């Protein structure tokens, strides 16, 4: 700790991301990355972009990408905000719509970056306790004083909240913004984007890191009525006018346009997810119903931390959370069928020895 640090720097507890191993032989099932490469059209776009234009600043508003996303979701360009990954979009959103003197609400078991943002911006927040089955009680989000944040599907559980429930939360908070974080929506859920036209208080945030295989490019976006998007751009332009580089923007456009490749990859991940669940259930694991590209698993006989350590010894990484209520669960990203074959074989081997 340095004497030059501000009090905020001294007291903040930063977000801890999943381990990124240097060993390429390790099977990474710990950070919910897509096991399949980006669309071939993405690589062609990157190749075409590597030219003299790189000496010039990119379009500060990413209008071409905004138009592509707007067309995909049947919105106007003015209803789309682009950021450097959905984490940045979330950070800007907390600053744009939430006031320090009011209390915002998000679930006690959810994306742990939310509390980091709240503490960084000195926002008051209340943790809505999930039920024993990890489902959300929407009554906990009723009349949220400062606004609300819903992760749908939730992370790390993978549970999906119906659009009817989302609508109820929106109806109960007409004077405050409700953020729906849809990082994993493409793996089986129905997006809240369809509700935007009817709800001026709805902001939907998505990413290209998961379903579009662009985690390395850092492209996220928010969707909402224009008055919300205009506010986000006021905050963004107070930090950094050029949050998205030229290459990332062009790659993102092609990733969104290639709908057939997208559908093919999603289909394979869902099929592998279902197969993995079936295999784990045969071994006595209990799995929370998932609409994400990961599953949340536990076993009555074996400790999650023991399995986590043994898997790491076998060069397989999954995510373990040493936190209240979920310390006996593992979050397992869905890799390729070949990777999940190895994972299942390693699990069988480990259980036989524990």
UniProtKB/TrEMBL annotation:
Homodimer. It catalyses: L-histidinol phosphate + 2-oxoglutarate = 3-(imidazol-4-yl)-2-oxopropyl phosphate + L-glutamate. One of its GO terms (biological process) is L-histidine biosynthetic process. The lineage of its organism: Bacteria, Bacillati, Bacillota, Clostridia, Eubacteriales. Belongs to the class-II pyridoxal-phosphate-dependent aminotransferase family. Histidinol-phosphate aminotransferase subfamily. The keyword Transferase applies. This is Histidinol-phosphate aminotransferase. The gene is hisC. It is an enzyme of class 2 (transferase). Pathway: Amino-acid biosynthesis; L-histidine biosynthesis; L-histidine from 5-phospho-alpha-D-ribose 1-diphosphate: step 7/9.
